[in-house]
Amino acid sequence: xxxxxxxxxxxxxxxxxxxxxxxxxxxxxxxxxxxxxxxxxxxxxxxxxxxxxxxxxxxxxxxxxxxxxxxxxxxxxxxxxxxxxxxxxxxxxxxxxxxxxxxxxxxxxxxxxxxxxxxxxxxxxxxxxxxxxxxxxxxxxxxxxxxxxxxxxxxxxx
Length: 158
Fold this sequence. Notes:
alpha+beta
């Protein structure tokens, strides 16, 4: 995935909106994979500093539990023209990326979410089916792959 992200990053250097969007989508995936790798190394090392360092990761002191986790208190979903819905969350301190998501089924543990990566807290979904119910959420991704999920909001699309 890293070569794909690096290619998208190079293409987005010209600020072309299409390539910037592709780069943002790849960034979400890379951050998610890095978080999974971090969790794997942490789990397997069982706190052994030598094992952590041999993995290529830096060994940090234990994380502070105060104020470092991203948090989304409220999600706003605004309906626009036919087939459009905009998800908005207030900027979350320490957030590096957002994943704007929707699903067409009531959310549960096996729900498949459609996600769009972004570096901003607002995204407009287009081409949604009118008169159909959708469920929306935003995932804020911070440093060390810390994630915050917004409340889920349901809307019937115009």
